Amino acid sequence: MNRGSGTSRCPAATASKAAWTCSASSAVKSGSAAGTQLEQVLAVAMEVRQSLLPGGDPSVAALDVAGHSKYCNNTGGDYYDFIDVAQLGESSPLLAVGDVVGHGIAAALLMASARAALRTRSLDRPGRAGLMTRTNDVLCAGNRHNWFMTLLLPQVDGRARSARWASAGHDPAIV
To answer: Does residue 6 fall inside a structural domain?
Structure first.
């Protein structure tokens, strides 16, 4: 930006995402109708992302379980979920923690796809490793832009005082 005037342009060699960011920043900075529209689109994206997070914390015997996410911007791919597997005979929920590389609407869409894949594939009783593999298959099919995410699927049994997990590149959990 040229001293906040909104008139600078991105160099031609800049990647398309950076070019979009410069254009979007210029539009918002200048207070134009396009900037107002962009702010409205991003507000809707934030609402959608928030609606994909768990509505509450699960009640688990012998454990206090809580989740919270605070985002640094309106759109992104940070993800956590409590997947109810009680109908499969499991005594504790399967947790999911993931992070899509990058930010923006594309990252949020990949996160939503991962959430949908995890929730639907968990009903097939594949186990944690199988669930991770099936979710990966879903996310890789048609992934023309090479977006990826890390994912951790821990399951803590409070009564047995044990934890099991599957990980796809995500940092280890502290339990």
So the answer is: no
